[in-house]
Design a protein that fits this description.
This protein is of the alpha/beta class. The protein has one domain. It contains four helices and ten strands; from the N terminus they run H-H-E-E-E-E-E-E-H-E-E-H-E-E. It starts with a helix and ends in an 11-residue tail after the last strand.
Length: 171
């Protein structure tokens, strides 16, 4: 059976969020599919969590915008740069509306394997900023997560990729 990028997109988009979480991919917000971001292109999936009022803190907290870039095969630096293009488009749009600082931003890259032939495999460790509750008036954060997926008889499974190091570190 051939498995295409659109199949991966459809599984993520249509699946129950709790079942996705059980399979290793945690999404909590509203998903948009093939979202056109002006001349910046069409993003595979975008997850939105709107800013909200925190009753105990008595102020607004940042929302999160998560760009999910999907590849049916190996995920590498070109997918990362593609998602940066979408991120810039979203930030530019929100800036025009005066809302760029209302959000933290996340890039989630998903493929069936990861390119380990370059420094790309370190991105998830170096840019793993926790996007916990944050006041709107603070500086926005950007976080990157990288996942591989496997698809078989038991369905789909996602594994977050972290902790890459050189085998021979030279010291």
């Amino acid at each position: 059976m051939k498995f295409f990028e659109k199949d991966l997109e459809e599984i993520i988009y249509l699946s129950d969020k709790d079942k996705l979480s059980d399979r290793g991919l945690c999404l909590h917000g509203k998903l948009k599919r093939q979202l056109k971001i002006g001349n910046y292109g069409n993003a595979d999936l975008i997850e939105f969590n709107r800013p909200y009022y925190h009753p105990y803190e008595k102020c607004f907290m940042k929302g999160t915008i998560n760009i999910l870039e999907l590849k049916k095969e190996k995920i590498g630096v070109s997918a990362f740069f593609q998602s940066l293009n979408y991120l810039k488009g979203i930030q530019t749009y929100l800036d025009r509306k005066g809302k760029e600082n209302d959000y933290n931003y996340k890039i989630t890259l998903i493929g069936n394997e990861i390119d380990t032939s370059s420094s790309f495999c370190y991105l998830g460790d170096i840019f793993n900023n926790p996007l916990d509750e944050q006041y709107i008036f603070t500086t926005s954060k950007i976080s990157i997560e990288i996942y591989t997926y496997s698809y078989g008889l038991e369905g789909i499974e996602f594994t977050q990729i972290t902790g890459y190091n050189l085998t021979n570190k030279g010291f």
